[in-house]
Structure formats: structure tokens, C-alpha cells
Amino acid sequence: MSEDKMVLAVQNLKMWHTLRRGLFGGVAYVKAVDGVTFDLATGEAVSVVGESGSGKTTLGKTILRLHEPTDGKLIFKGRDVTHTPEKELMWFKRETGLVQQDPYGAMPSFMTIYRILEEPLIIHRVGTKEERADLIFRALEEVRLTPVEDFAFKYPHMLSGGQLQRVAIARALILKPSLVVADEPVSMLDASVRVEILTLMRELQEKRKISFIYITHDLSTTRYFSEWIFIMYAGHIVERAPTKTLLQNPLHPYTRALLSAIPDPDPENRKRFREVPPGEPPSLVNPPPGCRFAPRCPFATSKCRSEEPSEYEAEPSHYVKCWLYAYAGAR
Amino acid sequence: MSAVLSVKNLRLYFTTRKGVVRAVDDVSFDLKKGETLAIVGESGCGKSSLARAVIRLLPRNVHTYSGEVLIDGNNVMKLSDEMFRRLVRWRKISMVFQGAQNSLNPVLKVGFQVAEPLIIHNNFSREDALAEAKKYLRLVGIHESFADRYPFELSGGMKQRAVIAMALITRPDIVILDEPTSALDVITQANIINLLKKIKSELGLSYIFITHDIALTSELADRVAVMYAGEIVEVSDADEFYYKPKHPYAEKLMASVPTLRTDKKLDFIPGAPPSLINPPQGCRFNPRCPYAFEKCLKEPPPPYEFEAGSFVRCWLYHEGRR
After folding, report:
1. What are the angstrom distances between the C-alpha of B53 and each of B30, B64, B100?
2. How far is A56 from chain B (nearest CA, A)?
3. Among candidate residues A74, A273, A48, A52, the one with its CA nearest the CA of residue A181
4. Choosing a second label site near A131 at 20 to 30 A (CA), which of A46, A198, B12, B261?
5. Which stretches of chain B score pLDDT less than 50?
6. Angle at A269 (CA atoms; ends A263, A273), nearest 5 degrees
């Protein structure tokens, strides 16, 4: 990938949360993100899919530098932002946006929608009062909260979940960022509203050529809204590939298990049992040595249990972190 | 097959400061022995209220609670609250509540919590109930040594299994499952669904399966009831429903379900569900329905029956437009 097309380069990124154990116990770490590497091009959308506790939210927050990485590198538009101090990060914050899962929790309840959208503009000293008003109304129009005058002066509790998530999207986009992270943006909404919001996000992302990281536990929505899928398990990206490739030809045993666990609406489903691995994801404080899926994997060998596999390019643009594909040659 | 449960003209209205909320409004359905009836609908359509009305676990602000609930042919609506608790709740019909795995009492051992219904509803001694609890923990795939542990020592999936054991221990004929897997990860969810399938055939249970997740309903449902704004607007056999839902709302809802294995264009329903305080005149879906005509705006459609146990509330069918 050429340098100028690249928005974000993540290299062996690690984010460990510290955990104090007991009164005299030492410090332990929750290795929420433990060595993640990928590139993201301009205007590209990726889905990061994983179960709860897989580290996907921490990954999203670390990419936006809401956490300072423990190790590795974070390069945004050619500039290393891994350890840049907070006060020198204003330009970076302006270039990035976040949409959170719970819109009610993400909006101050005492502010009107207008104030909520004006705040980032004020912080980044954008325009005069009039110019800001213009930007705010246009942003509301873009997320189809019309008539805008009606919505601008309402308070968050007066809006439905779907409407409020539109405000969250407007707020994330108002500074015209080049990278947006949306963390489970629709998981609290009803199915029909979900599709509506995701369609809107996809439309704006394509129109403005924003690079987009869509974090979700719901594999079935990803095919409609991203070019790439990354599968996370226990702090690692275990597989990444273009959306269609990954869904049609999943390689990692975990991805296969995940896919086979998700039903499509089909009356035949009730007549059979699903083949799913037993057990639970490992603790991120003491992850197993070797491959982290090995304790649940039907194909695990002694090598899998002792040595961590690297990421192999099993087929063009299809990367998988699994010993089964080691013959394809290390990257 | 005979009906183990028959609900007729059930109404449950709540009093609120803003007015009377008609959460369950003239709902009728049958549940056959050994069958799973799925009830689907968006949040706020009244599906959880319907479950609570059937098992009679009501809040204080009830405005109207009427209709018939027949279990094995007996109208249990006539029973006093005390008799209902003694004879019906948990003995005939039990429930797995939404998010129940997080409502286990943190200071009581799991075994005791699973055993408690037997002590309360069946007058078992503590020892007998605990022995029975271990049996049911094994049935749901938890080692009986976990009976002596506290909820925090169990994973989310195991807690959900324990809650299911709690719903089965009194050997009810009917189990209401209200979003039994909604807080769980997909693989854990699949494991729980496998378990629900297994125990259903082993114990000859009938399920009422309430969820907003349509794809998931197909894992269990023999028939599907679609709820919208407090009413059941369609009941269809699973074999038909997932291919060709009949009500325009059900059709749109199905179109909004993303699929993994097939390419399908996603669609959504514009607008929002109506208030249950002042539902629209005529058909309650008419403001959002692309096929609505004059009659839909004026008169609520009665059920249009296809065969026994399968109907749709839509004027398009009555008027021969479909």
C-alpha cells in the first residue's frame, strides 16, 4: 500500500490495563490488545469483530489515543502518535471521531443537541458563531434529523435511540475527520433501526471518503458495511481478509466456529444442533501460552499449545494467525 | 395436538402519568403440546408484558387485566393470586427472564437458588430440594459441585444454564423464554440454544420464546407470532414464515434481518412504532405501511384465518388484494 493512500498504520500494538491484586500483591496486566498489526487506507471501512472481552473496544480506543499504548506503534498520516503527549494531540483529535454504543450515556443530558454539536467546534476554535450555526444545521441535515430547527433545540432524552445515534454520528463527523471509530453503534437499537443507521453511516463514509473502523460482535451486519473484516480473539487479530473472502472461506478455526454459531432465518435450523466449541475465551491476565484458541480448538496440536503462531498470508490478502496455515510461509 | 395453553382476548393496560398504556391489547393464541411458539417484535411492542400477563407477574400500576388464560382447559384467570402462585406459577408454567443471569442473588449459593422454587411452590424440604437441584444442574450441563459455589464463580453462560435449571426444577409443562440469550456471546448463545433444544425433547416441554432476534427464533420456533403495538398481527407456521411472512410489517421486519450466507438487499421500516397510549385509528401499522388504503385508516382489521392457528390482521387479505 502506498504511503499517501494510507491513513493509519498499526504495528504490533499492545495495550495492557494495569490491575492491582490484593493489598500486597504485585501488579498484574489485562492484556486487552496484545500485538495487533494492520494498515488502513483512505476511504476504507473495516469491521473489527469479536466477542465481549476480546479487546475490540480497547483496540478502538487505543487507536484514537484515548489510551496510551503499552507497546508498538501507531502511525497516523505518516506521523507517529504512539506516545505524543495529550496537549500536542489536538490536530489528531480533530482528524478522528468516535461513535459509542450507548448514545444516552455519550451525550450530556443538560445540553441541547445544538450545544452538543457546537462543543467540538468551540474546542477546536472553528469559525464564528454564525459559521458554526451553519455547520451544525448542515450536519443535522446530513444525518436526516429534519426539520433541523425542531431537533437542534431538543435535549437528548426527548429523542429516540435511533435519532440520538444520528446526533452521535453528526458529532463525530462535524470536524470532517479522516478516521472514525464506531464502537457497537447499533447494538442497542431495534433490527429495522439498525439497518437504517448503518445505511446512513455507510453513505456518509463513502461520500466523504472517511476511513472507518466498525467495531461489532455481530458478524452478520459486516458484509453490508465494510470492505474488510478483522476477527479478534483474546487480544489478537486471528484472521483478516476482504469481507466476502472471509465470509465465504473462513480459515481460522475460531472464525469457523463463530460463523457456524450464527443462524440465518431458516426453519430448518430447529431440526438440528449447532456444532460449536465448548468452553469460554481465556483470561487476558494469564492467557495460555501458544495459540490462545488452542484450549478450545478441535485441531490443536502440542505445538499450538506451546508456541504462538505468527500471521500467515494463506492466500492473497487473507491473513490468518494459525499454525495450520504455516505452510503458506510467514509474512 | 391439543393446546396446553390457550390465551383469549388478553388485555394488560398500565396506568402512567401520561395516560393508559395499552401494552397487551386483545391478544389471543394457542400453544400446542411440545411446540415452540416464538413471539417477535421490536422493543416496546408489548412482548415482555404479554409474558408477564400470562404468568401473572404484574407491577403495581395495572389498569386493566382481563381475558382468559386456559391451561389444560382450565381458566386460571379465575384463580386468586394466592391460588395462582400455589397451583400454576412454576408448577405449570415457568419463565426464564431477560438478563436473568445477572439477577442471581450474589450472596446465596447457586444450588440453593436453583432449589428455591421447589421449597416455595412444591413444599419440598431443603435437603430434598438441594438433591433435586444437583440433578437439574447436571441436566443443563453444570457439574453438581457448582451447587456449592456463588454466582460470581460462574461464567455468563453457566449462570444462564443455572437460571434455566431454576425454571425446570418444578417440572412445568410450559416454559416462557424471554430473551434467554440476549446478553451472551454468539458461541455461548449457540450452546444455550442447543441445550434448550435438547431438554425440550427430553422433558416434552412447550416453549414460548420471546425475542427481537428473528434469525434466532428460527432455531426453536415451530410457529411464529408477530407483535406490533400491543397486538399480534400475524401467526404463521415456521416453514412458511421465514420464506414468506404475510403481514406487511412482518415482511419489512424480515427484510431488515441481515444474513450471512445469502446476498440479500437490506431494507428498513421508515418511521417509529406508535405510542401505546394513543395508538393510531384503524390498523396500527397504517402510518408506516406502504400498502395502506382508506379502510386501513378507519377500521382495525380482524384476524383473517388461513388455517387453524394461522392468521393475519390485515385488510389486504380481507379485501382480496393479496
Report:
1. 15, 11, 18
2. 14
3. A48
4. A198
5. none
6. 95
Inter-chain touch B272–A267, beta carbons under 8 Å: no
Is residue A280 within 8 angstroms of chain B, CB to CB? yes
Report pLDDT digits (tens) over B117-167.
999 989 999 999 999 999 999 999 999 999 999 999 998 889 999 999 999
DSSP B70: E
Residue type, B219: E
Helix axes A129-142, A113-123, angle to 10 degrees: 120
Any residues with CB less than 8 A from the CB of A201 and at least 6 apart, and which? A99, A169, A182, A185, A212, A214, A225
Query: How many CA atoms are closer than 13 Å to the CA of A243, on its beta-carbon side?
Result: 19
CA A144 to chain centre: 24
How far apart are alpha carbons A33 and B270 in whole angstroms?
Answer: 39
Nearest to A211 by CA among A57, A87, A52, A38: A38
B215 in contact with chain A, both atoms CB, cutoff 8 A: yes
Q: Measuring CA to CA, which residue among B283, B96, B118 is closest to residue B193? A: B96
Alpha helices, DSSP H only, in chain B? 47-55, 81-87, 110-121, 126-139, 156-168, 186-203, 214-217, 238-241, 248-255, 294-298, 315-318
Residues of chain A with Cβ-Cβ distance to B155 below 8 Å are 280
The three grid cell numbers given for residue B108, joined into one nine-digit string: 446465596
The count of residues in chain A is 331
Distance CA A273, CA A99 (A): 37
Dist. CA A179–CA A162, nearest whole Å? 22
Distance between CA A58 and CA B136 in Å, rounded? 39
Alpha-carbon gap: A83 to the closest alpha carbon of chain B (Å): 34
Are A284 and A31 within 8 A, CB to CB? yes
Q: Do A217 and B186 touch (CB under 8 A)?
A: yes
**Cell 422454587 -> residue:** B117
Cβ–Cβ pairs < 8 A, chains A and B = 115
pTM: 0.90
**DSSP assigned state of A49:** E
DSSP B280: P
Average pLDDT along chain A:
92
Grid cell locating A3: 504511503
Tell me how crowded residue B4 is: count the other CB atoms within 10 A of its CB.
21
Instruction: Tell me the ipTM for this assembly.
Output: 0.87
How far apart CA A37 and CA B105 sit, in angstroms, is 42
Cell numbers 427472564 correspond to B97
Three-class DSSP category at A161: helix
C-alpha cell at B216: 434466532
pLDDT (tens digit, 9 = 90+) per residue, B266-286?
999 988 899 999 999 999 999
- Dihedrals φ, ψ of B194, to 5°? -55, -45
Report yes or no: A212 and A205 within 8 Å, Cβ to Cβ. yes
The tens digit of pLDDT for each residue in A104-147 reads 888 999 999 999 999 999 999 999 999 999 999 999 999 999 89
Q: Which residues have C-beta within 8 Å of that of residue B258, sequence separation ≥ 6? A: A195, A218, A220, A221, A223, A224, B264, B266
Amino acid at B147: A
